[in-house]
Automatic annotation (TrEMBL):
Domain of life: Archaea
Name of the protein this chain belongs to: Lipoprotein
């Protein structure tokens, strides 16, 4: 009877390993499935943000406000998807994916903050208050710089772990 138990234990153990690796693989697949959605929302948000900045600089403030609203919507959508991807990364117990997704969350939050500051600046410019408007522009630029720092950190993670990012 002992001889039959050992193979059964080995088979059960092997099935557990396959199940765990399947969960890890499905978590990575979940990240891969969401990543293009996140990327598209960030690209669209960046495009709206840059257009809003251009319009604010031209004092086309209503158009700038509308574009900033659209940017904020895109960045918020990216954040929602990134939160799901972060959950997948944490479930996979892969520290590289988890760090990447945490960096991405900070990057997106910084873009959201930059956009909110730009909206605030446009509001002040509409009121002909360029002092406060310019103050919020400075804050928007600061948040966008922070976002780029985390984007660079993720590029470094990718270059240091090419087998994880295909």
């Amino acid at each position: 009877m002992k001889n039959k138990i050992i193979p059964l234990v080995l088979v059960t153990f092997m099935m557990a390993i396959v199940a765990i690796s399947g969960c890890i693989q499905s978590d990575v697949s979940g990240i891969n499935g969401i990543s293009s959605t996140i990327s598209n929302h960030i690209k669209n948000g960046d495009s709206y943000y840059n257009t809003a900045v251009t319009n604010a600089n031209k004092y086309s403030l209503d158009t700038a406000s509308s574009n900033a609203d659209s940017a904020l919507s895109e960045f918020n959508s990216a954040k929602t998807s990134a939160q799901n991807a972060l959950s997948y990364a944490q479930n996979s117990k892969d520290s590289v994916f988890t760090q990447y997704m945490q960096n991405l969350m900070v990057q997106i939050d910084a873009r959201i903050n930059a956009t909110s500051e730009l909206q605030q600046a446009v509001t002040y410019f509409k009121q002909k208050d360029s002092t406060n408007g310019n103050s919020h522009v400075t804050l928007a630029n600061s948040y966008m710089d922070r976002s780029i720092q985390y984007q660079t950190a993720n590029k470094n993670l990718v270059s240091q772990n090419p087998s994880k990012f295909k």
